[in-house]
Amino acid sequence: MGRYLVGRLLQGVLVVFGVTVVVFVATRMIGDPVNFILPLSASQEQRDRLRSDLGFDRSFINQFLDYIGDVFRFDFGKSTKFTNEDTIDVVLRFLPKTIQLVIAGMLVAFLVSLILGMLSALKPGKITDKILVTLSLLGLSMPQFFLAQVLIVFFSVRFGWVQIGPGPWTHMILPAVALALPAIGRLAMTVRSAMIDELNSQYVKAAKAKGMRRRRVVAVHALRNAAIPFVTLAGWEFIRALAGFTVVVEGVFGLNGMGSLAILAIRERDFFLIQTIVLVVAVIVVIVNILIDLAYKAVDPRVKLG
Amino acid sequence: MENPQHIPDQYSASTRETEAALHEEQNLEGRPYEVTAATKGVFRELLTDKTGVFGVAILAILGLAALFAPWVAPHGPTDGSLSTANRKPVWNGGTWEYMLGTDPQGYDMLSRLIYGLRTTLLVSLSVVLVAGVIGVVIGLISGYRGGRTDRWIMRWVDVQVAFPGLLIAMIMIAVIGGSKTAVIFVLSFNGWMVYARMTRGVVLSVKEQPYVEAAELIGCPPRRIMFRHILPNLVSAISTLAVLEFARIILAEATLSFLGLGLQFPEVSLGIVASTGRDYIFSTPRLIVIPGIAISLLVMAVNFAASWLRVALDPREREKRFAANALNSATGAGQ
Amino acid sequence: MISHETILDVRNLTVDFFTRRGTVHAVRDVSFSVRKGETLGIVGESGSGKSVTAQAILGLTELPGRVTGGDILWKGSSLIAGREAAETIERVRGKEIAMVFQDPMTSLNPVYTVGMQVSEVLVRHMSMSKKAARSRAVELLDMVGISNPAKRLDQYPFELSGGMRQRVLIAAALACEPELLIADEPTTALDVTIQAQILDLIAELQQRLGVAVVLITHDLGVVAGVCDRVAVMYGGKIVEEADASEIYPLPFHPYTEGLLRSTPRLDVVSERLESIAGSPPDLREVLAGCSYSPRCAAVTEMCRSAVPVLDQRGEGRRVACWNPR
Fold this sequence. Notes:
- Chain A is an all-alpha fold.
- Helices cover 77% and strands 0% of the residues of chain A.
- Chain A has 12 helices and no strands.
- In chain A, α6 (127-141) crosses α8 (173-199) and α7 crosses α10 (214-253).
- The longest helix of chain A has 40 residues, at 214-253.
- By secondary structure, chain B is mostly helical.
- Chain C is of the alpha/beta class.
- The longest helix of chain C is centred in the middle third of the chain and has 18 residues, at 192-209.
- The radius of gyration of chain C is 20 Å and the shape is globular.
- Chains in contact: A-B, A-C, B-C.
- At the A-B interface, α1, α6, α7, α10 and α11 of A face α6, α7, α11, α13 and α14 of B.
């Protein structure tokens, strides 16, 4: 187990490294970074000065090595947009909102898709199933911005504003739903087909022959096996949301999360901020991946790690 | 066909069927039976799958509209001025000339949708092709070579899969610009891994099968094995995957363009059309809603087509569907 | 100890499968009965309808199959027809009638422990507490000859060998001391040496617990040592039924005779293996006459034109043939 974790962590380091390289290359090698930051009217002097200030005049390798060195000293550079604040502070300020959103949204998504998928699988081909399948397809076919907008317009027309009920958490409900809906669409279909397959398996037949009640056969025997592919996909959805798809939802609902921050940073060409954002996101993704693997092992005892 | 054991007439029905099947095999003239059976089954299956028909029909219509955009669209995508701005759609008091209304710049919504459809389809198809070819080739190499090559390639795939895709896409496009080529490149860069993994999986599992071993034993050359055994399995798995990816890419491009971090003006894509409504969510919701519906319709049609394809290409799925239908008819089929 | 009380009565059972390529008449008008404590062997080749019959008894017929005729009576109550049938099956499954299937690997849920899968039967039918069920499960595993039963209880199916898994399934089946055990090809998926062990186990348990057994197999050898009576199935019908001690030395039906003759023997030197000419019937077809007639050595005109009926031909023997020995 320990060995496995070490292996995965190493791989994680590789991932973060790879991501950093890609972003570094993208931001430095294409054209002159200074041109992105300064307006066209800036003088050559100003450009040169900025270039040396930010260290863009050194060779690429130098810049990269320096950056790595800085990271190990927890120096993530200063943001140009948030005038000279440490980028890491900026990121950590915006991170909690996104995490809340993703956790809320994904919890909803997982629960709802499990229930809907199961209901569908119990009576495949009948009305409930057909309706659920069509709704799922609709959910996963709609672009996120469209869903978010429909929700927001609909609810603001009905209830006056985005807030459903009093309390500090309630403004997260609609965004979480907007995030969850496409995921529900995809996950419900997976649960459905996995459950149908499991319900047709030999051990289910054997359990029935033993006289086990239908409820138990479905919810205990079949579900646990169907959960195996579900965990894989649910994990992907979680990471997908975390790694950027909150952008739209945050934008439409005006939340201050990482997604909004990322767009801001990109628009403003705040290089160091961009790098730090990507770094933090990559690290989180790696950690979540490892957690998913562990969850996998919890669900399926046959899995041998490593 | 010779009949060594004289099988009496009462079995003639099934004998005829067997003979017919053998003739069919001969008529196929050496083409892999599986492929031909698969393709023939595909269209026969179409008729039984109503949503599949719907999906394919919609796609055909949209595809043709996109192809003949200059003739189909009532206006150009950037024809208009402030004088024609914010016209209402025809159901809200507008004229048929600007059927779906116009945007704040004065451009006709319907025309922009049609041209946008063209770009969206073009870009998405290209991504599927580029990512697909790269992914399949890499997957083939990985699966066929095995050993160290396989392990290193898969490690690389694992690493790239863990990249935060959308984020990287946004950054890259911000840097290299929002041309069609750039978007295609970026989305392919993020999307080839699925194909590689799937191809490798198919190659590996086919390699293990007893019938491949048997074929090798009787002296079947490797190339024939590849074509007769690996390829048919690959075709069905990859085509289903490609269609699903197609849907995903359409949505991804739409999202990127909506955020302003994908294709840029003066390009028109469905996402860009929607982006013009970003600032008018409450005042003029139709600016997002109409393109949103268009995108949803397109993607839904693709998904229906994908599900049809999946069932049509896999005989087990076909049988399952038949059984499900039989269950639902009160009296049961046959008798 | 075989009493004369009939507990299972299958009457004119018909099961059809509705597939894309036609309707398969898997079981055609099959009737037989089982008495308390007796062991009945049902023998037939693949596709003869024996497994389908077995599954129909416990209401396990799955799509695209359906029971389309006949009745199955358990101690007088129908398991198929009537309003109470559903309740009766609920009551009876796992408790009064138990079933063991062919492949022990797929019959066990891979993600739960072996112990759980035995205990759950006890909890369900005997209302035992989890703790009580667990200790009873240990006893059961011991009874079926599993060494170190307490440790095995917490292991998963993939950690056990094929023979052990089958023993676990037998333990779960016998947990509530059923009156009938249906074993559907219990040894087919196992190694030959293990086969013998499992058969011995079944025979021993049958003696000890007095449970009636319906043993389904394609292997005549399996049946010989264990069963009191034998029913031979072909093409979805029973073609011969007799006491085991009588059918082996003197088969009446040409198919039974063919089966016996084609069994390889170690004590007789022969150059070629004997086989029955022709191939198994297509169950989508319903012939005018006997389904075996195309392959039968003793075929007559009558055979081709009329379906033979399962008739009494002597003490305890029934044969469906126009031209038996």
